[in-house]
Amino acid sequence: MDFLSKSDLIGQYNVSTHKSFERLIGARGKKVLDWKPGKQRFTPKQVRALHKLIGEPLTKEEKYH
Fold it and tell me: Cα(27)–Cα(15) distance, rounded to whole angstroms?
């Protein structure tokens, strides 16, 4: 797994805006990611921790069925 940007994560969870994603992950998710304003990239460890906290993102097949 590579480092992911905020936009990459937003795309994984199929939400349309940064604000929607922030509401989805909540305060605990922001803490796990060490969320900061502006551009940011997340380590594979941070991404795994977020997936554990809020669940895995949908696969392409699940999104479009």
Answer: 17
Rounded CA separation 49/44 (Å): 9
Angle at 36 between CA 27 and CA 47, to 5 degrees: 65
Q: How far is CA 26 from CA 1, 22, 23, 39, 64, in A?
A: 23, 6, 5, 18, 26
pLDDT digits (tens, 9 = 90+) for 1-12: 689 999 998 888
CA separation for the pair 56, 41 (Å, rounded): 18
Reported as half-sphere exposure (CB side, CA atoms, 13 A), residue 21 has a value of 19
pTM over 0.70: yes
